[in-house]
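[audit] Reproducing an earlier prediction to check determinism. Same input, same settings, fresh worker. If the tokens differ from the archived copy the diff job will pick it up downstream; this log only records the rerun itself.
[audit] input (277 residues):
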Amino acid sequence: MDGRIDFDINHSLKLYLNDPSTISTPEAPSDLVECEQEPDALTPALINSCLNPVVDAIANSPDAVTYSSNFDTLQFLLKCAPISLPDQQTRFEAEPDCALFKLSRCSSLIPPSSLSKVLDLIVTSLETEAQLVNQELASEDQEAIQHHKQLLEIFAFLLQWAIAAVETKAAEKPSSVPARGRGGAKGTKKDGAKKDGQWDSGKQLVNALDVMSKVMKLKLNNVFVTTSERDTFVGLFTRPVYLVLESESRVKSESIRQHCWKVLCIAIKHHGHAFGI
């Protein structure tokens, strides 16, 4: 079994907001890492062969995300699903030959089916953690609460990243979505996937927003001791909500719009977000 990660939410968040491509993933499978130099090798079959064991491990126990190989696999795949960050675009223009730039532009970009699977895993695991934290809060087991606090931070961080990737993908013109995105693993959940290869991520986004609301209804003051810790955690949910609300097509969806408002209202009522909004 590989080692555990030493996760620091502030450090990870700083790297993510500056440029996700700079986040190091040394424990990701070598077959994936080699795709930085050979983007065409990033096929759905390769992605599934590396992702499926991670899905199985974390589905069995959310704590498995703290193993370096599992965490780095998820981070690497999210790096292969570019997000809209001005600083990243500036870097790409200055370094058009950088490996991750080639990877983000290659025809074998992470297919919608794989991104869908990553998002589903993160959302499901976050929901499970919310239930476990609620139980620990009732028992007042402080040691267990602190352990689940880290897991909440990890999944919330990954969820913010995944939603940014999903929104970037959703903003693409339909013709730009690779047709081989249809090739998801047999038996995997493909919520929102259409038979013609186009990906409707709306249902998954609504589910993610619903889980975010459930997490924010927890007594987070008993999980995050300081106000700054709580604010950082809540920001992992409000930031992607604001990103979603920037999309005219998303706002037109009553379900998405109402779920976004719900997250923000809970943040304002229970977590001091009035000034932030």
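[audit] rerun output stored. Observation attached for the diff report: The radius of gyration is 18 Å.
[audit] end
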